[in-house]
Amino acid sequence: MCDSKGMKKTIDVQTGEVKAGVGEVILQSKAIGSCLGIAAYDAVKHIGALAHTMLPGSAPEGKTIKRTKYCADAIDAIISRMGRLGSRKEEIEVVLVGGGNVLKKEDDTICNENIESALKLLKKKALKVRTQAVGGIIRRSVSLDVERGIVYCSEGNGNERELWRSEKIPE
């Protein structure tokens, strides 16, 4: 993490997880290949959430464990967890990271299916997608500085860079 982020609590979001936080928290997910990182932010309340989804659509009926590895269930969890922390759905802004064909297989469609599923579901839920770093063949990492309203992204072994900054937060 950058020195400018100080001594904030860092929360790792593993594959299939959704985590949320308020204020001085960094939510991060590393080594995102064909999976999709969905960073959600409410600048009004300084509330953020991060999901690391693996699969498009919803979990099959009867599946009770790790439902949030599916895109639809993860998005519902983001809205729910941010809501419990005081966020209103109308205030949530979203950034997408990942969905790369990191194995470079010609017949690998899961990466594109993850991206398309997320975009379709976010539109259906009326959540605003502000930017995205998706596709290609390189793994990515993502972090959300909840206090500052900034999403950082790195590709491969590269340094992280600012991908998006909430316009509602002063510099």
If you had to describe this structure to a student in words, what would you say it looks like?
The chain has 171 residues and is of the alpha+beta class. The protein has one domain (9-163): 2-Layer Sandwich (60s Ribosomal Protein L30, Chain: A), CATH 3.30.1330. The protein is 17% helix and 36% strand. The protein has 2 helices and 10 strands. The protein has helices spanning 71-84, 110-124; strands spanning 9-12, 18-22, 25-32, 36-42, 47-53, 92-98, 128-134, 140-145, 150-155, 161-165. A 5-stranded mixed sheet has the order 1-3-8-9-10, with no helix packed on it. A 5-stranded mixed sheet has the order 2-5-4-6-7, with helices on one face. The protein is globular, with a radius of gyration of 15 Å. The chain starts with 8 loop residues before the first strand and ends in a 6-residue tail after the last strand.
